[in-house]
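A reminder from the course coordinator: this example appears on the midterm review sheet, so study it carefully.

Given structure:
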């Protein structure tokens, strides 16, 4: 009896070390965890409460650790060491970012005036990260939020007739590497070897074509809807709207179509059978994301831990300096 009492008392004490709350009443995402005592070691608390964290992240989709002594890159590296046993590299990635240390990267290095639309990281690959971590090191003077979107809600907001077509056909991503706008194949696949690229494509259900100018075109068909391995919920887990040409700024889209044509765009999405997706369908999907989006201002030292399958993330434009570090891990495969 004494052992049970001691264990129960210890659990109560651990919970009392932190305060759990919601950023906005009635809004489940994210759950906020703050220390109740000064100097509380987040790493040690996490190790002692890993089961609690796992339970909460499946319910809420994401946890914002705020108010801990985590204002330096080194503190984030240490937290990743204890919370991310299987970190992933950014292979088959699509955006410029810098490897900082180990498998910690900078967030996407797009110009600060650009918006990055909501997406689940690497939803188009055969093995993707189940979790993703963001750490706010420098807060922008204005803007720079990382909006988050529960894709369980997105799934429910999409017209069932549209969902059914994608459930039947899946979706296709066509990528052209190194055309002047997209990333080069050397950057994306982390190699200078065409043979290694071909082997990777064959192992990951991708078709490939080497163009006369040495650039590469790949095609891959993936499901639009994925079932979460732990919760068994249907998730709108894809980049369909994100990379559809209608999502581009109109001026940029017209310039790129004039320069490369439909088949030469760095990215384009289709139904899984290769038929075109009407722009109105992509617009409907974008609206579903928008209706489910939650945004909050970063604070220095914030760490946001997301279930990458349950929650998509984005980036708002900003002014001034901004530094957000990213890590991803816990691989899940189709």
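Designed residues:
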């Amino acid at each position: 009896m004494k052992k049970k009492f001691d264990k129960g008392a210890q659990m109560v004490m651990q919970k009392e070390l932190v305060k759990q709350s919601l950023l906005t009443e009635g809004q489940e995402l994210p759950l906020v965890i703050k220390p109740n005592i000064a100097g509380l070691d987040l790493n040690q608390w996490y190790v002692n409460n890993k089961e609690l964290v796992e339970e909460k992240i499946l319910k809420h989709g994401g946890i914002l650790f705020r108010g801990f002594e985590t204002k330096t890159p080194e503190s984030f590296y240490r937290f990743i060491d204890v919370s991310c046993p299987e970190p992933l590299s950014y292979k088959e990635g699509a955006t410029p970012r810098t490897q900082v240390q180990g498998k910690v990267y900078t967030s996407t290095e797009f110009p600060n005036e650009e918006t990055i639309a909501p997406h689940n990281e690497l939803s188009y690959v055969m093995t993707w990260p189940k979790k993703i971590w963001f750490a706010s090191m420098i807060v922008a003077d204005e803007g720079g939020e990382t909006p988050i979107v529960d894709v369980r809600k997105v799934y429910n907001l999409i017209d069932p007739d549209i969902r059914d077509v994608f459930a039947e056909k899946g979706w296709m991503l066509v990528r052209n590497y190194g055309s002047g706008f997209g990333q080069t194949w050397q950057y994306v696949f982390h190699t200078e070897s065409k043979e290694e690229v071909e082997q990777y494509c064959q192992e990951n259900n991708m078709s490939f074509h080497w163009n006369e100018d040495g650039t590469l075109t790949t095609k891959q068909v993936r499901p639009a809807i994925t079932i979460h391995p732990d919760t068994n919920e249907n998730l709108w887990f894809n980049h369909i709207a994100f990379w559809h040409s209608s999502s581009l700024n109109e001026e940029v889209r017209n310039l790129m179509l004039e320069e490369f044509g439909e088949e030469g765009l760095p990215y384009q999405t289709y139904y899984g059978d290769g038929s075109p997706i009407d722009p109105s369908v992509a617009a409907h999907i974008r609206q579903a994301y928008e209706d489910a989006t939650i945004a909050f201002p970063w604070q220095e030292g914030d760490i946001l831990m997301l279930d990458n399958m349950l929650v998509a993330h984005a980036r708002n434009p900003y002014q001034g300096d901004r530094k957000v570090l990213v890590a991803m891990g816990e691989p899940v495969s189709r």
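Confidence is low (pLDDT under 50) at residues 1-12. The two ends are 45 Å apart (CA to CA).
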